[in-house]
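Input C-alpha cells:
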C-alpha cells in the first residue's frame, strides 16, 4: 500500500482552478495579497497532514496575438498573479514541517539567481523547499514582456538542461562539506581550499564562479518538474525527483508514468527515483448528494469561454476559432505541448470535438482528474486510480479556499488513512528526506547532480 504524497495546489491569484470560483460564497481567496491568508492556510495544511504547499507560477498571461483575452481580467483567470517565492519565509516561520514547492521557469530566470534564491530559502526553511522546474506556460506573453523573441519549444528544454546543470554545479560542487569553519579563535570564517569555482559552457548558457552561500540542509532543493511533452519527459527522466501530471484519463496518466520511469531507468536511475503526483479536484461531503451539489455549484460558475482562456494560456491557441462540434483539427504549438497532445488521438474519428475539449477544461480545470462523493467512495476511487496508474500522490486543487481543504481534511484524509493510503506523518526533517526516506536530505548518488559534488583537488 502506498503512503500517498499529498500537496496543495495554489496560485498567487484570487481564483481557484475551475471557473470563477473567486465569486463563490465562503471563498476567502480574494485575500491572496495578505500574508495572514496564506499563514492560515499553511497551518491548516500542516495540521491536516499535507506534505507540501505548491505554488504554480508564470510571468505569462492569456493572450491571442497582441491582445490580452478579456475573460482573463473579468474572471481573474491567471491575472493578476503575484510572485509566490516572496511568501515562503513568512510561511516557514508559521509552520514546522510543511514543505513549500515554488515554480520557477528556466526560460525566464537566470540560473545563478535561481540557485541563490532557492539556496537561501533552503536555509530559512531548514530544508523544506522544492523547485518546480518548468520551461513555462504562456511563453508568448512572457517573452514579449521581457523584450525577447520566444524560443522554440524543444530549444527551451535544451536550455533548461544548461540552466539546471549550472544550478546543480553551484549547489553541489562549489563548497566542500567542511569548508565553513566559523572559527572565531582561529580567525577563519571559511576555508578558501574548500570553496572552488564551478564552470559551465553550454550551448545556451554559460557560468563561471562560486556559489556565494554555504551549503544548506538539502544543498539542492527537492527537484520537481511539470510538462509531459516528449522533450519534457526526457528532461524529467534526467532531473526530476517528483513529476507533476495533469489530465483526466487514467490510462493516459499510466502511460506517462510508465514511460518516464523507463526513461529514468535507461539513464541509470533507480526504479523509485521519480515519484508522480497528479493534479486533482476532490469534491467531498458527508453524502454523495451533498458532494454532487458542491460540484453543481462549482460548475455553475464555470463557462466554455473560461475554458478556452485556460487552453489559450497554456497553448497560445484560440479554440473558439473552430466549429464547436467538429473534431479538434491537427494543431501544433511552440508553447505548452502537453495540453495539445492530450487530445490528439491519431485517429481523427476518435478525436474529441472542440466542445468536448472545452467541456473537459470547464469541468475539470487545467489539470484533470476529479473525485466526487462521500469519503468512502472517494477513497475507493483513489485506491483504484493509484492501482491503475502507479501514481504516488495528488495535488489537491482548490475550487474553494479553504473549503476544498476543509473537506479534504474532514472527509478524504481519514478514509485514506483507514485504507493505509495516507500515513500519520513522515519522519525526516527535510522535504527530500520525508518523501524519500531511503535517500535522506541530499540528492541520491544516481542523480546527475551527485556527479558535481565537491571533491578535493588531488595533490601530486
Ligand atoms: C500539476 C501541474 C502543475 C504545473 N505548474 C506549472 C507552473 O506552475 N508553471 C508553468 O509554466 N507550467 C506548469 N505546468 C506545466 C504546463 O502545463 C506546461 O505543460 C509546461 O509548462 C510546458 O511544457 P510541455 O510542453 O512539456 O507541456 C504544470 C503542469 C501540471 C500538470
Amino acid at each position: 500500500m502506498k503512503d500517498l504524497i499529498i500537496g496543495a495546489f495554489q496560485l498567487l491569484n484570487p481564483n481557484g482552478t475551475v471557473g470563477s470560483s473567486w465569486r463563490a460564497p465562503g471563498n476567502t481567496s480574494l485575500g491572496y495579497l495578505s500574508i495572514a491568508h496564506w499563514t492560515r492556510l499553511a497551518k491548516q495544511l500542516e495540521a491536516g497532514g499535507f506534505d507540501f504547499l505548491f505554488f504554480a507560477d508564470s510571468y505569462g498571461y492569456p493572450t491571442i496575438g497582441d491582445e490580452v483575452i478579456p475573460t482573463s481580467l473579468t474572471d481573474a483567470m491567471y491575472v493578476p498573479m503575484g510572485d509566490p517565492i516572496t511568501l515562503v519565509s513568512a510561511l516557514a516561520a508559521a509552520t514546522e514541517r510543511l514543505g513549500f514547492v515554488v515554480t520557477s521557469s528556466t526560460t525566464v530566470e537566470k540560473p545563478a539567481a535561481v540557485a541563490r534564491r532557492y539556496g537561501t530559502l533552503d536555509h530559512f526553511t531548514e530544508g523544506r523547499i522544492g523547485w518546480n522546474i518548468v520551461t513555462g506556460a504562456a511563453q508568448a506573453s512572457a517573452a514579449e514582456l521581457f523584450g525577447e523573441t520566444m524560443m522554440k519549444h524543444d530549444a527551451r528544454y535544451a536550455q533548461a538542461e544548461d540552466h539546471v546543470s549550472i544550478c546543480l554545479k553551484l549547489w553541489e560542487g562549489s563548497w566542500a562539506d567542511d569548508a565553513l569553519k566559523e572559527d572565531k579563535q582561529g580567525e577563519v570564517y571559511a576555508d578558501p581550499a574548500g570553496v572552488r569555482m564551478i564552470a559551465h559552457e553550454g550551448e545556451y548558457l554559460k557560468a563561471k564562479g562560486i556559489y556565494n552561500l554555504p551549503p544548506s540542509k538539502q544543498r539542492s532543493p527537492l527537484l520537481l518538474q511539470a510538462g509531459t511533452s516528449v522533450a519534457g519527459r526526457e528532461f524529467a527522466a534526467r532531473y526530476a525527483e517528483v513529476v507533476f501530471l495533469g489530465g483526466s484519463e487514467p490510462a493516459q496518466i499510466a502511460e506517462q508514468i510508465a514511460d518516464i520511469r523507463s526513461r529514468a531507468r535507461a539513464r541509470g536511475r533507480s526504479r523509485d527515483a521519480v515519484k508522480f503526483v497528479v493534479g486533482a479536484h476532490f469534491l467531498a461531503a458527508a453524502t454523495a448528494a451533498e458532494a454532487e451539489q458542491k460540484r453543481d455549484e462549482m460548475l455553475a460558475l464555470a463557462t466554455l469561454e473560461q475554458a478556452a482562456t485556460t487552453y489559450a494560456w497554456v497553448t497560445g491557441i484560440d479554440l473558439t476559432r473552430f466549429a464547436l462540434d467538429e473534431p479538434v483539427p491537427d494543431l501544433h504549438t511552440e508553447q505548452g505541448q502537453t495540453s495539445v497532445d492530450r487530445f490528439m488521438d491519431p485517429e481523427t474519428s476518435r478525436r474529441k470535438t472542440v466542445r468536448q475539449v472545452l467541456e473537459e477544461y470547464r469541468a475539470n480545470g487545467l489539470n484533470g482528474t476529479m473525485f466526487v462523493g462521500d469519503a468512502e467512495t472517494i477513497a475507493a476511487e483513489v485506491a483504484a486510480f493509484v492501482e491503475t496508474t502507479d501514481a504516488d500522490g495528488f495535488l489537491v486543487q482548490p475550487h474553494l479556499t479553504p473549503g476544498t481543504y476543509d473537506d479534504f481534511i474532514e472527509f478524504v484524509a481519514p478514509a485514506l488513512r483507514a485504507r493505509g493510503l495516507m500515513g500519520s506523518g513522515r519522519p525526516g526533517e527535510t522535504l527530500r528526506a520525508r518523501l524519500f526516506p531511503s535517500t535522506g536530505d541530499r540528492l541520491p548518488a544516481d542523480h546527475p547532480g551527485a556527479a558535481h559534488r565537491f571533491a578535493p583537488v588531488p595533490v601530486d
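The chain has a mean pLDDT of 94. Residues 179 and 194 are 5 Å apart (CA to CA).
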